[in-house]
From TrEMBL:
Recorded coiled-coil stretches: 93-127
Annotated region described as Disordered, given as residue ranges: 162-232
Protein name per Swiss-Prot or TrEMBL: RAB6-interacting golgin
Keyword annotations: Coiled coil
PANTHER family in the cross-refs: ACI13, RAB6-INTERACTING GOLGIN
Regions of compositional bias (Polar residues) in chain numbering: 202-211, 218-232
Species, as recorded: Symbiochloris irregularis
Length: 232
């Protein structure tokens, strides 16, 4: 084989390799074009689907706007009416708060007046109880004085009665007072009978002396205090 034939063979191989590489590139290009076309079709389908959805959303938005335009007037009126009611209720709340504050102040003033009046009442009740105790003590002291005077009078009366009884006994023992020795006068009989009555009174006086003298009763003032407890 000569050199020229070898070179020509090499050139043919190179040409074949070039055509093989070109064919491979063409196949790859065809695959890429097919992939691009598939992507384009997918995008067109997504765009169409999204466009349909967008149109539906646009229709819903148009309907909503129409409803808003239709109901805007009544809603505005209702909102205005509610706003006025809120303002009116706010004014009522302010007035009620002022009344509550005034009532609270009046209640505090009334409680203060009540406490003052109760203090005055308690002071008057205490003064009344003191006066009642003083009056009861004065009455008991006066009763003790009268009891002492009565005892003193009873003692003097008992001495006089004993002397009269002794004198009557002497007269009865005398001859003029014996039976048949003379008739005593009616006045003398009365004088003799008087000591008996005096003895009875003396016995009553002695019984009165035997009664123990009661001291001041602390409960009496307490009962009198209880009598005025109804003023509380």
């Amino acid at each position: 084989m000569t050199l020229d034939s070898a070179m020509s063979l090499t050139e043919e191989v190179r040409e074949e390799q070039k055509w093989a590489a070109a064919g491979e590139k063409l196949v790859a290009a065809n695959l890429v074009e097919k992939m691009i076309e598939a992507k384009e079709r997918e995008l067109q389908g997504c765009i169409a689907l999204n466009y349909t959805r967008v149109r539906e959303v646009e229709k819903e938005l148009a309907q909503l706007q129409l409803q808003l335009r239709i109901t805007a007037g009544p809603k505005r009126s209702a909102l205005e009416m509610i706003r006025k009611k809120i303002e009116l209720q706010n004014a009522k709340v302010v007035m009620a708060r002022d009344r509550h504050k005034a009532a609270k102040q009046a209640m505090q003033a009334a409680e203060k007046d009540l406490s003052q009046e109760e203090a005055i009442k308690q002071r008057l009740c205490d003064e009344l109880n003191v006066l009642v105790q003083q009056s009861a003590t004065a009455q008991l002291d006066k009763l003790d004085q009268l009891t002492q005077r009565l005892n003193f009078l009873n003692q003097g009366y008992n001495g006089h009665a004993d002397a009269s009884a002794a004198q009557a006994q002497r007269r009865s023992d005398s001859p003029a007072g014996r039976p048949g020795g003379g008739h005593p006068a009616s006045g003398q009989r009365l004088d003799v009978q008087k000591p008996a009555g005096r003895r009875q009174s003396d016995s009553a006086g002695s019984q009165q002396q035997q009664i123990p003298r009661e001291g001041p009763r602390p409960n009496s003032s307490g009962q009198q205090q209880g009598r005025f407890s109804g003023f509380d």
